[in-house]
């Protein structure tokens, strides 16, 4: 005769475990705003960034960090350049606060945004639609020579300047985490500029 404990013992479940593969988390949804809404949000973000720059200059690094975070939250998430500037500045705040891991994370986010921006620019120059279909554009030689490239050149220079700052800040944080040997990973295996020994994070955008 079975004992009382045997009668009430929990029997192994005959049900099979759910072996359905987990679906990876979706990327952040990109919400496009109207030109008017975008301008309003960008103005709000820029105002907060200006306030954060002042706080950083006064060595109020935690307050500056919080204000940069607010500026990033206000900025439309498809404005890769503006967000890259904010993420790079956020990395500078973390460096001052000696939060090395968060400094690496923010600088890497800035670099990822600049990479997305570069891909968008390359697609635009090639005349590629969002669906991948290539558009053939015919431009006369005279029109091509007359094209004003000053704004494009300035933008590219700004992008490279932010990239250099983000690389330096990420390198500084990684060096604090794991020693100077980790500097070789600052640019993911590529050659590392000698100017990385300069003081990082002292000048903001």
Automatic annotation (TrEMBL):
InterPro entries: TPR-like_helical_dom_sf, TPR_domain_protein
UniProt-listed Gene3D superfamilies: Tetratricopeptide repeat domain
Positions of the UniProt region annotated as Disordered: 1-31
Cited SUPFAM superfamilies: TPR-like
PANTHER family, A to Z: TETRATRICOPEPTIDE REPEAT PROTEIN 1
Name the UniProt record assigns to this protein: Tetratricopeptide repeat protein 1
Organism: Lachnellula arida
């Amino acid at each position: 005769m079975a004992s009382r404990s045997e009668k009430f013992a929990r029997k192994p479940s005959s049900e099979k475990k759910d072996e359905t593969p987990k679906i990876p988390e979706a990327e952040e949804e990109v919400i496009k705003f109207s030109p008017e809404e975008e301008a309003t949000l960008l103005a709000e973000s820029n105002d907060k960034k200006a306030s954060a720059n002042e706080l950083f200059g006064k060595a109020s690094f935690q307050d500056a960090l919080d204000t940069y975070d607010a500026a990033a939250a206000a900025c439309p998430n498809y404005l890769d350049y503006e967000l890259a500037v904010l993420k790079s500045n956020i990395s500078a705040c973390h460096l001052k606060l000696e939060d090395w891991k968060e400094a690496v994370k923010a600088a890497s986010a800035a670099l990822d945004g600049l990479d997305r921006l570069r891909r968008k620019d390359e697609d635009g120059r090639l005349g590629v639609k969002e669906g991948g279909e290539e558009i053939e554009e015919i431009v006369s030689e005279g029109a091509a020579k007359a094209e004003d490239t000053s704004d494009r050149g300035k933008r590219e220079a700004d992008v490279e300047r932010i990239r250099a700052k983000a690389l330096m800040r990420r390198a500084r944080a990684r060096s604090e985490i794991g020693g100077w040997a980790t500097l070789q990973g600052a640019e993911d295996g590529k050659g590392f500029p000698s100017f990385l020994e300069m003081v990082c994070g002292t000048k903001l955008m």
